[in-house]
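Predict structure. Input: Oleosin, 145 residues.
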Amino acid sequence: MADLQQHQQPMTRNLHDSPSSPSTRQTVRFLTAATIGMSLLVLSGLTLTGTVIGLIVATPLMVLFSPVLVPAVITMCVLTAGFLFSGGCGVAAATALSWIYRYVTGKHPMGADKVDYARMMISEKAKELGHYAQPQTDQTTTAPY
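Output follows.
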C-alpha cells in the first residue's frame, strides 16, 4: 500500500507542476480567440443563408415583373455579392483565428508588439486612475456626521 502511494505522488506532482499547463492568461486568450472566431464564422454563415433566402424570395418576383435578362443580371449580381461577402467573412475569421493562435502560442505575429504596447498603456492608465480615485473615495466615506 505504501509502495502504491509512493508511485502516485510523483505522477500527481508532475501533472500539476508541468510547465506545459496553460496559464490563466493563455486560457482567457484562447477563449477570446474562440469567441471572436466563432462569431465571425456565424456571421459568414448567416450572410450566406440570407443571400440564398433573398434569392429564393426575389427571383420569382423579378422573373414575373421584368424581362428575362434584367432579373438574370440582378440575380447574378446579388448572388456574386453574397458569396463574395460570405467568403470574405470566412477568410477574415480564419485569419483572425490564425493570428490569435500564433499570438497565444508566443510566435509573435505581425502587430503583436502594438497589442502588447496598448495593453501596457491601458494597465498603466488604470493604475493611475485607481490611485487617483482611492483618495477621493476615502474623502467621501469619512464625512463627519
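The chain has two domains: 27-65, 68-131.
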